[in-house]
Amino acid sequence: xxxxxxxxxxxxxxxxxxxxEVRRFFSTDASILQIMPSVIVYPINENDxxxxxxxxxxxxxRGKLLPITARGGGSDTSGAAIGSGIMMVFTAHMNRIIxxxxxxxxxxxxxxxxxxxxxxxxxxxxxFLPPYPVSSAYATVGGGLxxxxxxxxxxxxxxxxxxxxxxxxxxxxxEVIETKPLTKRELNKKLxxxxxEGDIYRGIDTLxxxxxxxxxxxRQRIRTLHNRAGYNLFDIKKKNTFDLTPLFLGSxxxxxxxxxxxxxxxPHNPQTELAILSLDSLAELQDLLPRIIDLxxxxxxxxxxxxxxxxxRLSPNQLRGVLDNPSADIxxxxxxxxxxxxxxxxxxxxxxxxxERGGGYLRVADNNDEREKINKLRRSVxxxxxxxxxxxxxxxxxxxxxxPLDRLADFLHKAIDIYAAAQLKPAIWGHAxxxxxxxxxxxxxxxxxxRQKLFKVSDLIYNTALTMGGSISASSGDGRxxxxxxGHVYGKEARQLMLAVKKICDPHGILNRGxxxxxxxxxxxxxxxxxxHQRHDYLPHS
Length: 542
Ligand SMILES: Cc1cc2nc3c(=O)[nH]c(=O)nc-3n(C[C@H](O)[C@H](O)[C@H](O)COP(=O)(O)OP(=O)(O)OC[C@H]3O[C@@H](n4cnc5c(N)ncnc54)[C@H](O)[C@@H]3O)c2cc1C
Known about the structure:
Blueprint: H1 3-11, E1 15-17, H2 20-25, E2 39-42, H3 46-61, E3 68-71, E4 86-89, E5 97-101, E6 106-109, H4 115-123, E7 127-128, H5 141-147, H6 154-157, E8 164-170, E9 176-179, H7 184-191, H8 196-210, H9 212-221, H10 245-248, E10 257-264, E11 266-267, E12 273-279, H11 282-294, E13 299-304, H12 305-314, E14 330-336, H13 341-358, E15 361-364, H14 368-379, H15 382-386, E16 392-394, E17 401-402, H16 408-421, E18 427-431, E19 436-440, E20 442-444, H17 448-467, H18 486-489, H19 492-505, H20 520-526
Parallel strand pairs: 2-4, 3-4
Antiparallel strand pairs: 1-2, 5-6, 6-10, 7-11, 8-9, 8-10, 12-14, 12-15, 13-14, 13-18, 16-20, 17-19, 18-19
Helix pairs in contact: 8-19, 11-13, 11-16, 16-17
The structure holds flavin-adenine dinucleotide.
């Protein structure tokens, strides 16, 4: 092993490796980028995380940079779960439920627990954590918090951040802090600390004080429900509280490393009504979507014709018998989970009327077989990511755009035209009820022409979303892929504020270096020549 790997192994309880095979595995996530880490570490506890941060901080003080990247399930599509230096993998050991209080409806977890396994435990108590991504089988709560993820249920329940009570965070120098809403008095105490924590409270407080109206203006310009571009400076200061939690949520491990989270839970109702509404045109979507939202669905996801076509091309039997009219332009997957059965039935009736008047075709699941078919469709987009054959793949490009709901159909029209001009037909899916769009055109990243198309299309798509009051990063964060576009989202001054936040929290630039700051040139240099997302983690055998 290298000197660094040896040193870390000697001082940590968790495993350390610099095997080429393992490093190669962790050099990619679900994005189109690749960076080779130099050491892989599987921390056992917070103390390991602290020691690693401290080690890297001390090296940086001596002028040697060894960045740290936190990693959960590696399903990040923005190129944020990769990095040079130390890769800290949480799924091996730090994946436990620390406390679960079913009465008070709270759970405290370590970051490496997957949404899937957490939910299985919570269901047995009649509870659940409502925002979970489509990747929940292997995506972790830590990764979800770092991205402030949303999922199919967010249309009713909001983003993951809404459920956070408090976080434990290891700072760049190895200090551990707890973030939660502070009173004025508690804040004053923090402002007086002579530590990195004190520097962060003072730095952020001053920055918010001095730039209040600038931040108000920026916030109003972006009209979407979900905006993860840059850092969330908008929700830290409330009338009577000051809370750094929103700053760490969505920061993609670039400001601190989450080692523990206490989350609020919600009663789970497994008896729901499920339906698919197939629409022949985007005009129908424009007309029906606001009325469907008024019915308060607990799921309102979309999947377009090309997605169905691509999934069927890759896996011919996967969607057999699931859709009555697979050639419809767009399919909405809808669920109603109100605790009163009568309310669910009423919503379905209204949906039926909307479909009859609006021209859509409604298929309601009235037995378990039908429910399973609709669930199959919900989960099917993952097939796009895991295809191994050939070099031309449905790659995630400009794939996390969010729009104000009233502009969604208009945006989709324009996006399809942009792709068509580049002779591309993207698979489009997303959280329609949240105005979030994911797009996957088939491209061969080894071909220069296809790479050029990718960047050209991204430019046009992002600019289109921004002119409509949207954001380029809805739920998967900017990572490195979208970092070059941050200057288009925020004005020059606000962009400078975001960079100042990074400097305050991570003065040596150790944590997830390049995330939210990479230039277009740097991104081009990190591009893979082949896209394939590997779902299984490379974990130690101990
Ligand atoms: C098939 C598929 C479907 C998806 N569906 C959705 C969806 O519905 N909604 C959605 O929001 N996203 C979706 N995503 C994107 C992604 O799955 C989510 O953002 C997910 O929450 C990431 O979790 P992860 O454990 O894989 O994190 P990773 O990919 O490992 O990491 C994500 C980010 O979090 C950071 N991080 C990880 N752990 C920590 C920690 N402990 N402390 C600090 N930072 C940390 C990483 O450095 C990285 O920046 C999807 C991706 C795929 C491949």
